[in-house]
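EI: anyone free to look at a 522-residue chain?
SC: sure, send it
EI:
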Amino acid sequence: MNERNIDPYRKLERIRGRLKEKWIRASERQRAKGKLSAMERLEILLDPGSFVPLQSLVMPMYAEFDEKQADAMGDGIVIGYGTIEGRPVVVFAEDFSYKGGSMGKSHLEKMEWAIKLAIEFGVPLIGLYDSGGARIQEGVHSLTALGGVFFQNVMASGWIPQIAVIMGPCAGGAVYSPALTDFVFMVDKTSYMFITGPKVVKAVTGEDVDSEQLGGASVQTRKSGVATLMAKDDKEALLAVRKLLSYLPSNAGEDPPRVNTGDPWDRIDEELNRIIPADQRKPYDVKVIIKRVFDKDSFYEIQPFFAQNAVVGFARLSGYVVGIVANQPKFLGGVLDIDSSDKIARFVRFCDAFNIPLITFVDTPGYMPGTAQEHGGIIRHGAKVIYAYSEATVPKITVIVRKAYGGAYIAMCSRKLGADVVYAYPTAEIAVMGPEGAIEIIYKKEIEATPPEEREELIRKLANEYREKWSNPYVATASAYVDEVIEPKETRPMLYRTLCTLLKRKKRFSKMPTKRHGNMPV
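SC: here you go
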């Protein structure tokens, strides 16, 4: 080695040594809080040895490079690329051990660059958030840089999957970056999201609340619906992200990955014929049907704790990835309300953006009545479901399991909303409203003229007659609104054959005049 080249190499060696010491110290500080360091998190998320760091020596605003200031190198964020199950991804991980992970100008420009890189490569973006928010000392510079991140999140939307993992605080304007992504994971007890912290809330509204009560993982996954899934610790969250990616294509120009699950496509399940109760008023768990129809252990539920009267998630059908939407009779009878409408619409739009076929299981008595829903905008929110299904061009298959009443029947991917194929079980009831409600309107005078002690029996009799004559699935089948009545046990092979046919069809496009985009109700 040339004598004059010894010092530069030794300098690089010293820098790398100090960076290594920095991460050891960061690990110790994070573990004291029950958390992992940024580098430890990336080691769990990515395939071993696949991570390639970028811009690791970037310094904070106004700071000159000094190899002794190892803690400042990187400005509180690690960015780079690696692989998950051999598939390339771009990642960034905020480092809370440096100035609380605060977002300075250099920090945010690195984040923005990572998103741009993911867009250019056409690969998923995964962001690990652990920050106290914009760095106050840098004022407008940090705020402006934050706007650049938001812009890139929007540019990436619909082209590449974006996944945010909240692994500590995420406060103020910083929350909007994860809010613009497709999926948000949180860690129980150690992560939280809110616009304004407990102290500001106390000063403005007088409410006395802590960070967990205000925006903890339980709140954001169960009440607000901001977060998708909640994990018990950092490792569980990161492994859940790895699993989610196995269902998603790298970008909108690709199909989702198909795998050999070993589950025969033509499997008949006799137990499915015994799940739906004979009494239409009795609940059952629609997830039992989903798990028995699709490949064993393949159902990956999205937002399982939010708006539980609707179920959405990914599954595989003989290895093909599909998006599942279902009403859940176990909660609120499967009724559509404000939250479940938002949940369904957003999931449908994601699947359509990323070439994931949609299979819908319908069992709903309608939209939720009441002043709270009406004043909260159920009309506007319910319209989102109609818009999302109508807009979707991926294969759409609908199975009417039991109740399909009124506007909710139309909204849940009915024939006129573009369903390619509609199946119904023999237990299906398709009508403007339930039999009991319908006959009380149709036979109002007859019922009122009947002695009170005989009315219940009369209503039961008339309801059964209405059900037999008007709301059974064969009426809809006779008009081709339903393609075929099938037994539940036949669902899997019927869906598989239909899906294989539809996947061969070119993507359907509307013959509408050229336009910039529609105006979705939001």
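EI: The chain has three domains: 3-245, 270-428+472-503, 434-471.
SC: 👍
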